[in-house]
Amino acid sequence: MKTLFKNGSVINVFTDSVEKKNVLIEDSIIIGVGEYDDSDADTVINISGKYICPGLIDGHIHIESTMLTPAELARVCLPHGTTSIVADPHEIANVCGSYGIAYMLEMSENIPMHVNIMVPSCVPATPFDESGAILNAENLAPFYKHPRVLGLAEMMNYPGLIFGDESVIEKVKSCRELGLHIDGHAPLLTGKDLDKYVSYGIYSDHETTSADEAKERISKGQWIMIREGTAAKNLDALMPIFEEPWCRHALLCTDDRHPADLIKEGHIDHIIRLAVKKGVNPIKAIRMASYQAAQCFGLNKVGAVAPGYNADLLIVDDLNTMSITDVYCDGIQSVKNGVTLPIKDPVPDLQMSKAVRFSFNMPKLKVVSFMIPEIGKKKCRVIDVIPGSLLTNELIEEIDFDNGKNGIDVDRDILKLAVCERHQSTRHVGLGYIHGIGLKNGAIASSISHDSHNLIVIGTNDKDMIKVANHIRKISGGLAVCVDGEIVASMPLPLAGLMTDKPAAVIAEQNEILRKTVKDIGVNEGIEPFMNMAFVSLPVIPSLKMSTQGLIDVNKFQRVDLVVGE
Amino acid sequence: MKTLFKNGSVINVFTDSVEKKNVLIEDSIIIGVGEYDDSDADTVINISGKYICPGLIDGHIHIESTMLTPAELARVCLPHGTTSIVADPHEIANVCGSYGIAYMLEMSENIPMHVNIMVPSCVPATPFDESGAILNAENLAPFYKHPRVLGLAEMMNYPGLIFGDESVIEKVKSCRELGLHIDGHAPLLTGKDLDKYVSYGIYSDHETTSADEAKERISKGQWIMIREGTAAKNLDALMPIFEEPWCRHALLCTDDRHPADLIKEGHIDHIIRLAVKKGVNPIKAIRMASYQAAQCFGLNKVGAVAPGYNADLLIVDDLNTMSITDVYCDGIQSVKNGVTLPIKDPVPDLQMSKAVRFSFNMPKLKVVSFMIPEIGKKKCRVIDVIPGSLLTNELIEEIDFDNGKNGIDVDRDILKLAVCERHQSTRHVGLGYIHGIGLKNGAIASSISHDSHNLIVIGTNDKDMIKVANHIRKISGGLAVCVDGEIVASMPLPLAGLMTDKPAAVIAEQNEILRKTVKDIGVNEGIEPFMNMAFVSLPVIPSLKMSTQGLIDVNKFQRVDLVVGE
Question: What Cα–Cα distance (Å) separates residue A35 from each residue in A21, B192, B221?
Answer without folding.
Answer: 6, 8, 17
